[in-house]
Amino acid sequence: MIQVNEYYEGMVKSMGADNKEGKFTIGVMEAGEYEFGTATIEIMTVVSGEMKVQLPGENEFKVVKPFDSFRVEKDASFKLIIEETCAYRCQYL
Length: 93
What we know:
The protein is mostly beta strands.
């Protein structure tokens, strides 16, 4: 069954499901600044647009472009700056 998620007053929306590769979401973020926490390991891949990410333990933001990915460990938080609407895929391990 497809699950629908909404965060930050509708500025971030995703649809999630499970398949043989595991749990994943596909989503869209409007311009803004966001912080998310993880309950599992997450691998996020930009599909369209770009995002700036500040990973746990880092002081700088780095730019993530289409088809680039980053990994966030379990029980951590990360910050994002989205300057223009961006689409992503997130895999949960």
